[in-house]
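Quick note —
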Amino acid sequence: MTIDRLPEPIDVRVGAVAPERLIALLTPEQAARTRDALARAGPTFAGRTIWNVNSTATGGGVAEMLQSLLAYARGAGVDARWVVIQGDADFFSITKRIHNHLHGSPGDGGALDATAREHYEAVLSINAKSLAQRLGPKDIVILHDPQTAGLIPLLRTAPGLPVVWRCHVGVDEPNSLVRNAWDFLRPYVQLADACIFSRQAFVWEGLDKPRIAIIGPSIDPFAAKNYDLPIETVIAILHAAGIEDTERRQGEPVFLRQNGSVARVVHTADVAEVAPIAHDTPLVLQVSRWDRLKDPLGVMHGFVNHVTSARAAHLILAGPAVNGVSDDPEGLAVFTEVHEAWEALPPAARERVHLASLPMADVEENAVMVNALQRRADVVVQKSVAEGFGLTVAEAMWKARPMVASRVGGIQDQIEDGVSGTLVAPGDLEAFGCAVDRYLSDRELARVVGEAARERVREHFLGSRHLIQYLEVLSGLLNAEP
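Predicted structure written out below.
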């Protein structure tokens, strides 16, 4: 198959951030180890560029982690860069199908056949030619997720150029669909110098074990999505975004960008609702892409049918505006399904449910809206049917919010059931509702669990740990001391 042309891969601008501010949050032992590792990074990677390649600069946890981790790496003296590949609608339909199959879901029902492979390879061949012109002989390439796996054999043609594949998705118990996706990708992935998975259970069959590394994702506590916001600012941001109706505005809807400048929330969310939520209404929140794997319909029906707390809580299902995530062609269809289900709710139930599509015109503005929503929420949920990791879990835990989430994938690595949140079976709507009710009704329990959740993230899921693990893997490929 031939494709006449595609836009050039996009270089994403990333600033440099001193990692010392991140180190200040760590225990003395963690801080010492991090400083030592970062001090080695400059000499180890001198004269090299570490290229990170994925398929979108906005929307989703991978883009968020890259923006943060690369900034800290650059602040430590490492030349880390980010490139976004280009594709047509058919390519992204195929890669979304692969994504769904890797989660054990049929997705659009299409096949991963020879025709799909031919188009997948044709698109990546065009991207590889452009990428190859950027690479120096001493550089390192990290390719992220299924969209980029086919680049591995195309970029390993340069002698001595290490190519790493990073997989952020997976399931604990693979079915035939999962294995079908493995079979589609394995010819490319088995040629990588190293393969990084988010947890041991996600590692595929048939890969060379010595080349496997396990690195869990992380959050940046100083990013717009996570840094501390006073309650006055939370209220002002949600009011400016059209999400909450309040007369208590004492602050201004402003936020800090990564570069240190101050910006103002000027875009508004598109909210499907009977009436805006009041400032004193107890709130349950799920933030995620409009994706069936996030089970927004299950969240809605679990809330409406099983959250019976006398506190008359409301639910917000929040996600990105469906035209704002370039590599997710199913977003509009899923949002439409959720909206139709919301319209079909009995009037009294519909009044308690809000669907918020958050604007993506300004990525950091979008992030601070999520930050404000998570801090406004009394309980945050993530009722996914499959989840590679689920950064929204760690984000809400960092804000000391009690979590109710599915016992699937990387969510299990984050939440200690009964200690830093509650895990439920994905299909058990009654258990889901009861757990939410318990936190809404027992504020002391919610406080204790929320504080434990924040400490859990501090110990295990900040970017400092993530950076050290990457350094160890890449140093090993260069035969250097980690």
